[in-house]
Amino acid sequence: MTFSSLGLAAPLLQALETLGYETPTPIQAQAIPAVLAGRDLMAAAQTGTGKTAGFALPILQRLSESEDKVASNSIRVLVLVPTRELAEQVHASFRQYGEHLAVSTYAAYGGVSINPQMMRLRRGVDVLVATPGRLIDLFTQNAIKFKQVQTLVLDEADRMLDLGFANELDTLFAALPKKRQTLLFSATFSDEIRSMAKGRLRDPLSIEVAPRNSTVKAIKQWVVPVDKKRKTELFLFMRKDRKWGQVLVFVKTRRGVDELVATLLAKKIKADAIHGDKPQPARLRALESFKAGEVQILVATDVAARGLDIDDLPQVVNYDLPIVAEDYIHRIGRTGRAGATGQAISLVCADEAPLLAAIETLIKQTLSREEEPGFEPDHRVPLTGASAIAAKKPKKPKVVGGRGGKGVPGNWVGFDEGGGKRTGARSTGGARPAAKGSPKAGKPRGR
Ligand code: AMP
């Protein structure tokens, strides 16, 4: 199959040739004709498999074929994304693909001055890529009208439709024209989000390129059990021992990110951070320096989990596991992109076992565990997934005495002693495990 057989016009084919795209990826092969035909879509494909071109190419073609001109303060296509970095990246893709077309594009997001955005919108924009908060600000200040919107794209759609953006999305859906094309793209979709989304779409075509919520096979994933207090030491050891090059490291909290970066810098390791408390220009600078290879270790919260496309990134490390299981798929999806291989290593301590169990339930695989000699944890990480089920198989009654007669393997202490399921693993509604004190439960995620 070729891009031209999908019905794309010459100016787009020319741009793709410059970029070295020879064959459409499976999601592109299915999505491009459907979008060109004007269908609504709910499209799921694994991380790094070309979703952006799957919607951007046909959108650009439809815009270039239409005679309509965009009015001032108006837009014709709205692409909503969850983070500012992703807004920049998706906008850059539209610009590359549309290089030989007279289609105007722009990105608007928070954390930077709103005035230049208001000025630019005065002339009207064909494709606006935006984060929801800033878009609402522009809308309430009358800087943008939605009357001309013909297509709405929710990139990372499950994240856009979850609780964190609920208010903004309700306002937007109320303001957008009812007659429009709506396209949802993501690597993960829970059943809850799917049924919620259906109400927003017109006879949607559902495209699923790989099994639901699956991780990319080319990413080798494993878990290293370790005591919480030794995670930094273990990370430094593995980095040196395995001669890791660039690494993207995910840490749960903003403070945790800053602490790890401070430790790395003190050891003269080139490191930088991305999290919600950093000014936007510093966030973008950190990402650019990492992409340019000037920074060795980029430490981030989940603000960097989704969508970011970093060429040849070999290594992702989960210093902490994510609280929302789907974020694991997105985090590790920063490596192994566009057919490359990658490694994803999770440093897991005992009290993260419920989070690990939730991830394993979601991705339908038990992650292998490889203890690092010298770092074997004192607090053993309770068994999860298939190993836990195997360990639960009824055994011959033991003579009371031995191990205290509880009939429970020693490493289950504090996890599932009662034999009941306490993993809290859910495959719907964001697969939030019932971890105590989850800071994100039911709240906007403040990215
Ligand atoms: P995405 O999933 O949209 O972030 O794309 C992942 C990476 O694959 C990006 O670096 C794209 O430039 C690249 N890519 C997308 N489609 C193709 C294609 N058909 N051929 C080669 N590379 C592609």
**Largest beta sheet: strand ordering:** 3-4-2-5-6-1-7
CATH first level of the largest domain: Alpha Beta
Alpha-beta content class: alpha/beta
Number of helices: 15
User: How many individual domains?
Assistant: 3
Q: Estimate the mean pLDDT confidence.
A: 88
The count of β-strands is 14
The H/E string reads: HHEHEHEHEHEHHEHEEHEHEHEEHEHEH
CATH superfamily of the largest domain: P-loop containing nucleotide triphosphate hydrolases
CATH fold assignment of the largest domain: Rossmann fold
Biggest β-sheet strands, sense, barrel: 7 strands, parallel
The assigned CATH architecture of the largest domain is 3-Layer(aba) Sandwich
Brief characterization of the structure:
With 447 residues, this protein is of the alpha/beta class.
